[in-house]
Amino acid sequence: MLELANITLRRGPRELLRDVSLSIHPGQKVGVVGANGTGKTSLFSLVRGELEPDTGSVSLPRHWRIAWMAQEVPGLSQAAIDYVLDGDEDLRATEAALAEAEVAGDGVRLGELHAHLHAIDGYTARSRAARLLHGLGFSSAEENAPVAAFSGGWRMRLNLARTLMARAELLLLDEPTNHLDLDAVLRLQDWLAAYPGTLLLISHDRDFLDAVVDRVVHFQRGTLKLYPGNYSDFEVRYAEEKAQQQAAYEKQQKEVARIQRFVDRFRAQASKARQAQSRIKALERMQQVSAAHAEDPFQFGFPEPARLPTPLLGLKDLRAGYDSEPVLRKVSLELHPGDRIGLLGPNGAGKSTLIQVLAGRLQPQGGLRDPAQGLQVGYFAQHQVDHLDPEASPMLHLQRLDPEAQPQNLRDFLGGFGFRGDSALEPTAPLSGGEKARLALALLVYRRPNLLLMDEPTNHLDLEMRHALTLALQEFPGALVTVSHDRHLLRSVTDRLWLVDSGTVQAFDGDLEDYRRWLLERSEGPAEPAGPGQPAKDRDRRRAAAERRKELKPLRDEILRWEKEVDRLNRRKQELDQALANPGLYGDGEKDRLQELLQEQGQVDKALTEAEEAWLEASERLEASDG
């Protein structure tokens, strides 16, 4: 097994880990989570032997081979599929030995090597590599294209495929879903779920973690703790621990206050001095329980747009694409305030093209783009971080948008995105990818858009920032159109799905699980060989499945509405609880306000109970219908 024993690790003046121990058994799939900068990537470097701990040791079985995904790919002339096949070192070594044996005319050696090649499935390696590339979005024609022909994001996909081809007992993956679309994420998820070895996976995608891992290691303030179960199980257990810790802290503080009052009262009295001294020593001996930190470093919301015209934007018979070949044909749609649209579709079908047309970044080849007067587009895509001024601070970026704004107001705004203190005044150049993405998002929010267009907004964002973005988007009053591989975000902030496929854009009658099934049917085709009447059977089956989804859609929509209502009421309940915990509310001058809050608390509690019951009833009806 992989074992860390009494590890302490410092990077410069920072202590990332302090006297931690961890054991991971063969076959376990472990999600590694924690805020950015806590040491997750350094843990991988320790395991690979690239870093030496300041104290302690790392051990793993001698026969274990380790595979990990490199973060850079050189511009090679080598074909993509050959680059991926190089990940299987045993295969390449066997092929090289075969070539030598053929030159030497060593028949016995040739027989042995061919037997070994058969044992390691070497004859199917090229087809396995091709399937991996296809699953990650590469076309058949691109398999033989040189590595140098691909952009940075696609080279990262090649690195991922090369890593998955490796024969390894231990697989280390650091944010493998960055640069992937939803289709590729679903395929990778299935591959990792079937992987027989030991897996350490750093990811901020909770649905991906839930589907793959059976353990979670949590980094927090120099410690590591291993939790059984997937990420959702971890969230529940961690929340319970924090609640217990907070209760213990509050109980201890009451005891500290009681002892301190005794000390303060009797310290000066000779008859009580000895007792006072004993209590002072008791205070010194008392083990301090730290308060449970909310760990919510990001808090922001979208300001009310200056205008909310309706419709905000329309497309009519639109054609769009690159060069002379349209990717989209005869697309007609309208966007209104309150629309929440998630775009689905295979890689290359035109999702990003549609976003760019809506944003006005790509001119139509035909048809009409009709923006409303007062349309204010907020467009977020990963390439926007490249347009940040590397020499300018986050503060200066904002001041350029609003030169008349008060500096303190700008600093308060940036604090909601994690830029506090000196970090708001330092140059952008050394910021991490996640920090730059946060800054680009802050600049977008500050412009007060009424139409949000977001192309993979969660790439490089950690779980805390994703949570803050989700909450902000839920309250956004304008229209939202997003492409994302983060299924939790899609479920939380969208209420309609559009399918971009074969040049068209149309409503998708179903949920993300239905889309997963649609992808499988599309890629695999009929399960049995096509024969007389088979295409008609497939059409009938698909038509019946579509009709079934259409029948159940109102019930799914009802469940979604109740889920959102429960979330809204829970948030309001927490706000009321915090307000009622304020001691100043119980003064004589606040009686009316206290009564108002208590009355609203009762109303919210009742409404929450009713909403939860309605959600449960609708869910049971859906389960019965599916059955």
Helix/strand layout:
Blueprint: E1 2-11, E2 14-24, E3 29-33, H1 40-48, E4 55-59, E5 66-68, H2 80-85, H3 89-104, H4 107-119, H5 125-135, H6 152-165, E6 170-174, H7 182-194, E7 198-202, H8 206-212, E8 215-220, E9 223-228, H9 231-266, H10 273-285, E10 313-322, E11 325-335, E12 340-344, H11 351-359, E13 366-371, E14 377-381, H12 394-401, H13 407-415, H14 433-446, E15 451-455, H15 463-474, E16 479-483, H16 487-493, E17 496-501, E18 504-507, H17 512-524, H18 534-580, H19 591-626
Parallel strand pairs: 3-7, 3-8, 5-6, 6-7, 12-16, 12-17, 14-15, 15-16
Antiparallel strand pairs: 1-2, 1-4, 8-9, 10-11, 10-13, 17-18
Descriptive report:
Helix content is 47%, strand content 18%. The protein is an alpha/beta fold and 627 residues long. It has four domains: 2-235, P-loop containing nucleotide triphosphate hydrolases (Rossmann fold, 3-Layer(aba) Sandwich), CATH 3.40.50; 245-285, no CATH class; 313-526, 3-Layer(aba) Sandwich (Rossmann fold); 564-626. A hairpin with a 2-residue loop joins strand 17 (496-501) and strand 18 (504-507). Helix 3 (89-104) runs antiparallel to helix 4 (107-119) and helix 12 crosses helix 13. The longest helix has 47 residues, at 534-580. The radius of gyration is 29 Å and the shape is globular. It comes from Thiohalorhabdus denitrificans. GO terms for molecular function: ATP binding; ATP hydrolysis activity; DNA binding. Residues 552-614 form a coiled coil. Residues 2-246, 313-527 form the ABC transporter domain.
